[in-house]
Amino acid sequence: MKRWSPESSATIKKQIQKRLEKRQTIRELYKQKSWKTLVKVASQTKGLYEEYDTIKVQGQVICVGDSVQINSGDQHDEDYVGTIKQIISIKEPTTAKLICLCRIQWYMRKSEIIKSQPKCSEWISEQELFITNHQEYILAQSIITNCKILSCSEYQELDEIDSTIYFNRLEWDLQKKQFGNMDAIQQYCLCFQPVNPDRQYIQCDSCKNWYHFECVGIKNGTYDKNEFNCRNCQ
């Protein structure tokens, strides 16, 4: 039979104290919404941290790699959009309650971009997203639904578009507040802007270039002649 010594008793007290501190830390970090620190603390303790490939939210199965709409709260008119990079479950030691977090790579929307680049408002579509290199954790319960993020060409080919379908063609640098690959985007019309799928275009029958209705003087959104030639080809 082992005898208890003052040394062993002190060691046990330290271990108990560490466990209590760990429980308190996870509880407090959850209240503070310090998700990154919460993940770090939980991952250092066996049995508190686990990763998954899928999760069920709002009756939908959400997988790593899916793009989702995220509740932006009462302060914002538009929902956020991001792609899931990681799904984590953390057990709160005292209550055994599971805290489910997702690591999200964020996209920016038109309303956010034009705050820094107001002149871009004409060619940015309402359903256009801009990928960033910013990632952070969110509560899985804040996910609203799955959504699709297509290329610009795929988006233009659609006959019907709902509020969960977006497209992406450009990166956005959050620090510099500018586009990361603007040179790769073809520009059109007399105004030399990237295509905006929300606007109407007409093709010149001679040079085959595309022009905005407004830029070539077509009013009321209609053109009733058999052929159209731009001013360079007339």
TrEMBL record:
The keyword Metal-binding belongs to this UniProt entry's keyword annotation: yes
Name of a matching Pfam family: BAH
Domain of life, per lineage: Eukaryota
Keyword presence, Nucleus: no
Residue ranges constituting the BAH domain according to the UniProt record: 60-183
Ranges annotated as spanning the membrane: none
Keywords associated with the record: Metal-binding, Zinc, Zinc-finger
GO terms, molecular function: chromatin binding; zinc ion binding
Ranges of residues in domain PHD-type: 186-234
PANTHER family: OS08G0421900 PROTEIN
Protein name: PHD-type domain-containing protein
Organism: Paramecium tetraurelia
Taxonomic classification: Eukaryota, Sar, Alveolata, Ciliophora, Intramacronucleata
